[in-house]
Structures are given as C-alpha cells and as structure tokens.
Amino acid sequence: MINMCQFRFYSTMQSQKLHQSLQSYFGFDTFKDRQEEIIQSILSGKDTLVIMPTGGGKSLCYQLPALLLNGTALIISPLIALMKNQVDSIRGYAKEDEVAHFLNSSLSKTQVRQVKQDVKSGGTKLLYVAPETLTKEENIAFFKSVEISFVAVDEAHCISEWGHDFRPEYRKIRAMIDAIGDNIPIMALTATATPKVKSDIIKNLSMDDVRSFTSSFNRQNLYYEVRPKISKDQTFREMVQIIKERTGQSGIIYVQARKSTEEVAKILEVNGINAAPYHAGLDAKTRTKVQDDFLMEEIDVIVATIAFGMGIDKPDVRFVIHYDIPKSIENYYQETGRAGRDGLEGSCIAFYAHKDILKLEKFLKDKPLSERELSAQLMEEVIAYSETSQCRRKFLLHYFGESFKTEDCQKKCDNCKRPKEMQEAGGELKIALGVVEELNENYGIKFLVEYLVGRKTQEMKNFRFDQKKSFGTGKDRGNLYWHSLLRQAILNNYLRKDIEKYGLLKLTNKGRAFLDNPASFKMSMNHDYSVAPGEVITSSGSNGAALDEVLMGMLKKLRLEEAKKRGIKPWIIFLDPSLQDMATYYPTSTEDMLNISGVSKGKAERYGGPFIDLIKNYVIENEIEKPSDLVIRQVADKSRSKVSIIQGIDRKLPLEDIAISSKMSLPDLLDEMNIIVSSGTKLDINYYLEDNIDEDVVEEIYDYFQEADSESIEAAFDELKEEDITKEEIQLVRIKFMSDMAN
Ligand code: ADP
Ligand code: MG
Ligand code: ZN
Hints:
The structure is a single chain. The protein is of the alpha/beta class and 743 residues long. 48% of the residues lie in helices and 10% in strands. Strands 3-4-2-5-6-1-7 form a seven-stranded parallel β-sheet, with helices on both faces. The model is unreliable at 1-6 and 531-544 (pLDDT under 50). The site of zinc ion has 7 residues, from α16 and α17.
C-alpha cells in the first residue's frame, strides 16, 4: 500500500480563491498585514517564519492553510491552558467539532482514542499539541502513520534562551518532526523576536530556505513614559492619579512580587478604585473569577505579576503601568502590548528605580553563571531604555531590529513630548569610536566608559591600558556623558552590540565612515535617576507634586500661633509630616484634610479650621492649580490591626495580650499606638498605666511633655533618665498625653 504522506502536494492558490476561503471560513473580507503572503508561502511548502506583534492575527496564518490542505496540521503551543480556547475558537467557525482537537496530558484514555480516530479519518485539520506530547514514542508512531500537512510552532521564541520565555522542550521539536516524516514544512510564529532570537529560531528548527515575514512592531496608538520611582508613597500617589484620570477604564498594573499585588491592590481600593490582585499563587477558582470580573468590567484594574495576561484578550485595556520594571525589553513590550489592542489610545507608564534592578539581580544570585550573565545583559537593555532621553519608540523598535525615525513618534512618548536639550557631540563621538577601534572592538559599554574617563581599575592596569595615550581622554566629562553618548551611538547605528559575544561593541560601516569623515552628531544626556530617595525631583515625568516651601513656612507660623492660643505645644496640633503633606497637596476642605497623613477626623475638626482657611486663601491668591485627586488616602495596610488595637484597649486588655493577638512585639505595638494617637484618635490606657507604672512617674513624664519643645522620646529620656525612668514608660505616658490632647 502506498503511504499517502509520501505524496504531499503543495502549491500556491489564486488570490481570489484564497479571499473566498477567508470569507467562507472566517467571515473576514481582507487579510491583515502580510497574512496572505504568509499563507501562500506555507501552501507552497516553504518553511515560513512569522514575526508579528500580539493581536496581529498570527493564528489565522496557520488556521486557514490547515483547513485548505490535505491532512492534519500539528500546532505546537506551550500553554495547555490556552489550547482549549484555541480549539473552541476554531470549532466556532466549523460545522463539526472534529475539525480541531488538542492532544495533551489532560485528556483521558477514551478522549485520546477519539482524537486519534478523528485524525485518522481525515476530519481533523488542526491538532494542537504540547511539546511534551511530541516526545512520546507512541504519539510519534501515530503521527508517522497519518498525513501531516505542516507543523506550526506557536510562540517560537520559547526556543531561545535570549527570549523572555525559554522552554527547553522547544529545543527538541526539530528532532521530533524529523522522526515523524521528511519534508514537512514548518511555520514558526512569535510576537517578539530580536535579531538574535530570530536567528536562534531558524537555526534550531533548521528551517531551510526560510521565508521570513516581519511585521512592524510599532504600536502607534501607545504612549510610552518612564517615571522615576522616588518613594513608595510618591509612586502610589502618582498611580492613583493616573487611574483617577481614567475612571472606569480598564488597566493592568504589573508588579514583581506576589506580595506587592495585594499591597498595591489594597491601596487602590481604599482610594475608591475597583482593583484586584492576581498572581500564580492564587487558586484556580479565584484566578478565573478575577479574569472574568475584569472582562465583565466588574473590576477596572488588575494588579498582577506576569502570570496575568497570557491569553487574556481584552481589547480596551487603556493603560498598563509597570510599578516594577520588567526583567527584559521583551517582557516590557509584551506587557505594554496588552494596552490598546482595539487600536485606540493606550498609555504605558513604567516606574523605574535603580534599586529595583538590584532586587532583580538578587533573585538571580543562586542561578547558574550562564543564566546570570544572560539576565544581566537583558537587564542592561531595560536600564538603557529607562534612562534614555531618546525617543522610547525608536529604542524599542531598534531593539527588535527595526529602524524608525524619531519624527514619526508624533510626541507619543515622554522624551518626544518633553525633549531634552541636544548638544553637539561630533568631536566626542569621534573620540569614542576611535577608542572602540583602538581597543580592537573587544569591549562592552561599561569598560569603554571606564577607559574614557580614565578609571584605573585593576583590569586597566593588568592590560596596561592606563599607559595608553587615549586613556582618560574623556575625563572632563563624566560617566553619565559617555554612557549617554555610547548608547546613542548604538541607537543611531554607529556601533552595534554583538549579542553573541557578551555585548561587545563593534563598529558598523556607518561608524567607520564617521571615523574617516567626522561630521556633526547631536546628543542629549540620559536621565539621571541616581538622586537619593527623599530628594525632591521635579522630573519631566512626575506630576510636579512638590513641597511648597512658602506655604510650609506659613503653616508652621500658624501652628505656633494656634498652639499659643490654646496653651499647648505646636507638635500636639499637627506633626511636621502632616504640615508637609498639606504644603504639597493643598487640602481646602475637612474632607481633603482627612487624606493628609496623621490627620484623623477628630484632629481635622478640632484643629483643621484655621489651616484650611489659610490654604484656601493661599491657593486663590497664588492661582495655584491644586493637584487634582492627588491626595490619596493612606494605605490601610495596618488598618485591620489598628482596629483590633483600638478595640482591645476599649476592652481594657493588657497590652501584652493585644500585642500577641496582633502578632507584633510590644515595642511595635507602642509604635502603632503612637501613630494612632498622633493622628488624633483617643486611646484610654489609664487602666494599663495604673497597673504598671508608678503614679508619680506618670505625673513626672506628663508634666515634662506639657512643657517640652518637642515630642521626641530621646529628648525626654535624656532629661528624665536620672530619675530611673525607662523609655518604655516615657512612650506609654506620651501616648496618654497625646491622647488627652487630641480629643
Ligand atoms: P496573535 O496570535 O497574533 O496575537 P490572534 O491570532 O489571536 O493574534 O488574532 C487577533 C485578532 O485578530 C483575533 O480576534 C482575530 O479574529 C483577528 N483577525 C485575524 N485576522 C483577521 C483578519 N484578516 N481580519 C479581521 N480580523 C482578523
Ligand atoms: Mg497567538
Ligand atoms: Zn518618541
């Protein structure tokens, strides 16, 4: 008997006929992008590589030819969870269920038998398989006995360690296909592929005579921005503001750790935003519910680790915020790519702190060296993206091997919207390129910068580079300057990074031409995020919520006057951090006041009035535009324990017991109680003091605070230590004192 599959027959199809099948199978009138060419390529039996962004319509590139060709197409896909969806979706277009099946470890024996029968009878045109399925001996034998039209490898970047989702099983695909038969055409598809990943795919699948189709990765409807992550509080404020400007719209916030998903979601919730956490540690039921609620718009914002998004296809996600910077540009591109899939506006805002990179590096500590090095290189690109003052879009597209003119960004990134000043750097570029050449194109950015500024590291001395004439020629300019320049030289193709060789910088033809014929070169300095936390940066990206020093002075003066009037110490009215908050967010009503840290309802009502009046006048006189909705409610992270502390004290429980039931140490409990009374809530701890501290001691400390110029425990201790009074006693009495004063 002649085996059918020895007579596979491939040829292109008339365009008109292909359009008809598109219409009859899928109901679409036209092909998107280069779908038609791609389909023709596989129909004619050529190995075909498809690189198309998420949402571009990759599935149709294999679905349609699979329906048209004799036999069954094998679709290799990494995620078992998504196979069912894909099968359901293709069945939706067909009359019979048998047209598409999946074969993976989740099926029962009976189900497997049914699948194989449908494949044998020729009714099944698409069979989704996991790479593991392919490795099974019995499956290989089965596939050998039936007609396979072609193999489609979806998410093909999983082949490469240089992608963002390496899966070792993908490396075995070629061998499996060879075991199944000869000359089976392969289609590989992915939504992200740097030049390196692309070449890995081609090599690994040995795609002979491959035809590649790369769509543009430009997502013109997305706006990109990177903001410095100055402090947690500040970042939370900015996020709340971003979301409130888009009330009712859908968005995703990506964070690194599971624990942060809960924390951030909670903050958003207390600020009136419909948010829910999502991470791989949640049980399947909860995860499904969160996804469904998001799709049904019961939830507006998902705070997720990267576990979220695979297969989620909500077309109208309007913003993607990266609370933590991602591990690679591929991840970043994928995650931001979930915004604006309907072609309408989408904002992609990332918060960047160099500290976060260090955190990522720490995670890698125990990984093998090769993996660490690889991750380090991927992260270096993320750092470069974050710090660049060049067009973000240009950077991203350059990363994926696409060229792009900055003008075409149309101000849809922060750097194009607020460009940094450009300076002439033709002479400096010549110096830098000259050094690259002199050192035989053998070094990466970091080393070259060190060489240019003349850092005498051990390595420099070992190589005797510190003896060279050009060593340190750039020392008048700092690290930041040369780093910016080298990066921009790469972005503008004077240099290229050799990713096969640890990111060594090589001269391009354009770079050599420049050395022969130097010309003008304009560059701008990178953003400098190395400012210490706490320092106020009014960066291009931040919303300008900065402390108003003038107002701060006025508030302090008012506090003093009020204190005198009432015969109490100023700090009893409001602590400095509260005033700072007021001088930043301009609260002009009692309600606004409640959002200021350390201000409770009691305190706002008792002392707030004159402060509100002052701020109101100040805002009008100086025509200040109040940062809208900027005042965010303080995190309720500890609110649960706060409530239980207050309840415990109401019930006159020993503090030790309250500490135990709140799972904190006694000192922590005292700190917590101090925060409670400082914000104006009364805590009557007389019952505890009576049992635990001598009456005279209580009185002495109490008197001290009535006279003291500051609330400082240390100062009180210095003053009172000779009387054998302990810090703990001072702390306790101060709580009583603050509590008495507050209400
Ligand atoms: P990808 O796998 O590239 O992320 P999909 O294959 O899931 O994208 O396709 C994204 C969306 O585009 C799907 O909703 C699909 O139905 C739609 N689509 C694909 N091709 C066409 C077409 N030719 N015309 C209209 N819509 C299409
Ligand atoms: Mg897809
Ligand atoms: Zn731009």
